[in-house]
Amino acid sequence: AREIRLASRPEGFPTPENFELVEVPLPDIADGGLLVRNQVMSVDPYMRGRMNAGKSYVEPFEVGHALDGGAVGEVVASKAPGFEVGDTVLHGLGWREYAAVDAAHATKVDPRAAPIGAYLGVLGMPGMTAYAGLLEVAAFKEGDVVFVSGAAGAVGQVAGQVARLRGAGRVIGSAGSDAKVKYLVEELGFDAAFNYKDGPVGELLAQAAPDGIDVYFDNVGGDHLEAAIDSFNLYGRAALCGAISNYNTTTPTGPRNVGLAVGKRLTLRGFLVHDHKHLQADFVREVGGWIASGELRYQETVTEGLDRAPEAFIGMLRGENLGKALVTL
Ligand code: NDP
């Protein structure tokens, strides 16, 4: 069996040399454990933070050890009651072909109800992040004008559509290519979208939202957040989900106009999806229903082969993915 280890810590953008593909024996499983053959794994932006030394909100990856992260696979051996060979499970030991998983940290999923990759994307952690961030953290209400950055990614594509389906006044998205902008407007029903590489974000947002914005779903940080603060109406609310524009740089940028938060009575609220588990059932019911009815659409960008997982991860950080970035094994 093969796994991918952290070979060295990146400075700035990761490179293939930061990863190492290693042949290892099949892991043993203890009582209460499962041996899982992974079929699909997730590459996510937060993994970039874990490649640095020092604790963020998750433990760092260790040099010389396998990386980990969301994965779905088939149980091939079980020493845990309630799990049988052939079950499909969602768990946290990706970046390897075979995982010895503690059954307490595995969730059975139904491969007939949805394609297994959806449990890592639209129906999984990123979809839930969009749902909780918009509805609870940003306290979205009908009629709000909503701006979503990173809008063609895993979280963003769901956030914008939940806003539309819940009765937003207008939904505006930003993304890093013309093809993504087209996808947002033509496929996902955004009212307006722009390519943030076309000019200063503040100007592009002001053109797309001439009457201002009420909610900002922030996946990007930096100049995007600064632009949103300028465009905010009174009592505007930002869900600070991530700041990917600063993940791969040694010279981070921040909003210089955060002082406007006072006069505009803004709420800028950071959040982690794990704190919103009470919304899980509502999320699956509502978003699952919209997927089934065709009202909510989504894309995945799938790379084949564990050996190409580093490439898929780096590509995602560079914006090569449309929708959720996944790796099949
Ligand atoms: P995506 O699928 O959106 O992939 C990352 C995207 O980021 C790329 O496709 C790229 O798209 C964009 N990007 C990269 N560099 C920049 C840049 N300099 N400026 C603007 N955009 C950039 O990832 P996710 O949907 O999984 O994650 C989106 C955000 O949500 C991240 O910030 C992540 O950390 C955060 N997150 C937070 C969670 C929480 O609990 N708070 C949980 C899950 C995710 P483009 O072509 O448009 O540039």
TrEMBL record:
GO terms for molecular function: oxidoreductase activity, acting on the CH-CH group of donors, NAD or NADP as acceptor. Keywords: Oxidoreductase. SMART domains: PKS_ER. Residues 14-327 form the Enoyl reductase (ER) domain. The keyword DNA repair does not apply. The keyword Oxidoreductase applies. InterPro entries: ADH-like_C, ADH_N_2, ER, GroES-like_sf, MDR_fam, NAD(P)-bd_dom_sf. This is Enoyl reductase (ER) domain-containing protein.
